[in-house]
TrEMBL record:
GO terms for cellular component: cytosol; protein-DNA complex. One of its GO terms (molecular function) is transcription cis-regulatory region binding. It comes from Nocardioides zhouii. The modification 4-aspartylphosphate is found at residue 63. Gene3D superfamilies: 3.40.50.2300, 6.10.250.690, Winged helix-like DNA-binding domain superfamily/Winged helix DNA-binding domain (1.10.10.10). This is Response regulator transcription factor. PROSITE patterns: OMPR_PHOB, RESPONSE_REGULATORY. Residues 136-234 bind DNA. InterPro entries: CheY-like_superfamily, OmpR/PhoB-type_DNA-bd, Sig_transdc_resp-reg_receiver, WalR-like, WH-like_DNA-bd_sf.
Length: 238
């Protein structure tokens, strides 16, 4: 869910900037930080695909021209993967056909380079005000249900109380059922990219989750893939 933006700033919003130009990405990151926006940087389409699925972002700012998978393909693949994070496509092209293509593959808005920080923040504010009705309000995997907007979780008819960190970790697993998420992917989903990657905090919080969503119900939904990471069973342990 987007954090409401004020007239000049979008404090509290976390976005993923997909930009292969290192200098451009760094300048944008500094400017956004000044405006109170937390930004993670992906330098390629492949990085964008896994990062956007591993962490809950408010907005993705997606450059079209990337060195591997272009922005159109990234956007389309994310929508196919049921990642509904609002996407602002960015390109140096000014062709109407490119703007149409971006919207057709699932983008929410479009910016043409060069653009001002004020214009980008205005687009963020617009997305913050938008009531997106065509995106699923609930995430369900077997008997597990998760409400991203209300930050609530149920196992069957029983509501389960989770901390903010536990909720974010479970959401990352539920959005990719049956897929193995690495220790690093889960760390980046529930913490920030500056966190100590050698920490065992993921293992600790997986234990917390199991104690709340599995053990009381006599199921085992979160599987350990030794040497790789964790996955949520596609049936959610039901």
């Amino acid at each position: 869910m987007l954090v409401s933006c004020g007239d000049s700033y979008c404090a509290g919003v976390r976005i993923l900037v997909v930009e292969d130009d290192v200098a451009m990405a760094a300048a944008l990151n500094r400017a956004l930080h000044t405006a109170g926006v937390v930004a993670d940087i992906a330098g390629s389409g492949d990085d964008a695909l896994w990062m956007a699925q591993a962490a809950p972002y408010d907005v993705i700012v997606l450059d079209v021209m990337l060195p591997d998978v272009d922005g159109f393909e990234v956007c389309e693949q994310l929508r196919l993967a049921r990642v509904w994070t609002p996407i602002i496509m960015v390109t140096a092209r000014d062709a109407v056909a490119d703007r149409i293509r971006g919207l057709d593959v699932g983008a929410d808005d479009y910016l043409t380079k060069p653009f001002s920080l004020g214009e980008l923040l205005a687009r963020l504010r617009a997305l913050a005000r938008r009531d997106v009705v065509d995106r699923p309000a609930m995430v369900s995997v077997g008997s597990l249900r998760l409400d991203p907007a209300g930050r609530r979780v149920w196992r069957g008819e029983s509501e389960v109380s989770l901390t903010a960190r536990e909720f974010t970790l479970l959401e990352a697993l539920m959005r990719r059922p049956g897929q193995v998420l690495s220790h690093l992917q889960l760390l980046d989903a529930a913490w920030d990219f500056g966190y100590e990657h050698r920490s065992n905090v993921v293992e600790v919080y997986v234990r917390y989750l199991r104690a709340k969503i599995d053990r009381p119900f006599g199921v085992a939904s979160i599987e350990t893939v030794r040497g790789v990471g964790y996955r949520l069973r596609e049936d959610g342990g039901a």
